[in-house]
Specification:
globular, single chain, mainly alpha
Amino acid sequence: MEALMILLGLITGSFINVCIHRLPRGESVVTYPSHCPGCKTRLGFLDLVPLLGYMLLRGRCRYCGVKISPRYPAVELLTASVFLLTYLNVGLTPALVKYLFLFSVLLVVSFIDLDHQVIPNSLVLVILAWGAAWQIFWPEISWTGALGGALLGGGFLLALAVVSRGGMGGGDIKLMFAAGFYLGPLLTSVTLFVGFISGTLVGLALIVLKLKSRKEYIPFGPFLCLGVFLAVLWGQDLFEAYMGITGLG
């Protein structure tokens, strides 16, 4: 089963790459065949085999020779890792379908935010609709908990945006409202904590390495998505570890 999850993750990662490239450009991710972004030639079957295609082509288009970004296989490997870790934590249960889809959309959100500094409303609506459907037909938490998580996630970032006069993007606010619907108040708190800590550490590292200046914008969406992933799979453990370290438990 682990091998199947890895294979499914690689295939999904290939589609995620398509979404990352096309959605910000307003292109269809379904009807338009995969093609080289350089010469526009339609790609063959072997070109599209996840990971293997990149290695066989040695990172270049077979038709025009343009270099293929190594991020394509990296996203495929990352997705495969996410799928495997999710399966190992939730098992072969309905929750596996629920969270594999959620995490896939969050990967698209993360890389679009990194590339374009925007979180598409369409993806936020997909996340919210998916969570609402599961809340109706297979709830893991109460409706009170779901709404509490949504209001906490979106409300906290909205308040922060007001206080900082725009220091928090609207996409981040909407994303955390939608994600909080899955998590409830406790795991939403864990998500925000992980997001701010990881974002701060990475930001400081980029500044120290002189890859970013203090005034340059660093997208926050990827850190929130990381927080959601960790909160879903290990949120309770992280919360208990924090309480133990701080002596509040």
